[in-house]
Amino acid sequence: MRNFLLSLVALMISFSLNAQEKVQMADGLRAEGKIYVVVAVMLVIFLSVAIYLFSIDKRVKKLEKDK
Questions:
Q1: Which of 52, 30, 31, 48 is nearest to 39 (CA)?
Q2: Cα–Cα distance between 17 and 35 in angstroms, integer?
Q3: Which helix (H) or strand (E) holds 23?
C-alpha cells in the first residue's frame, strides 16, 4: 500500500511539473482570437452530451417506473 501511495504522489508531482510549461498552441490561438471558437465548440459538445445523458436518464427512470 505504501508503494502505491508513493507512486501516486510521484505521478501527481510529475503532472504538476509538466503543467508549469507554456502551451504554445494555446498562446497562438489566444493571440489570433481563435480560442473563443475552440471554447464555443467545446461548450456545444459538452452541452449536447449533457442533454443526451439527461434524456437517457429520464427514459431509464420511466422504464424502471413502469416495471
A1: 30
A2: 24
A3: none
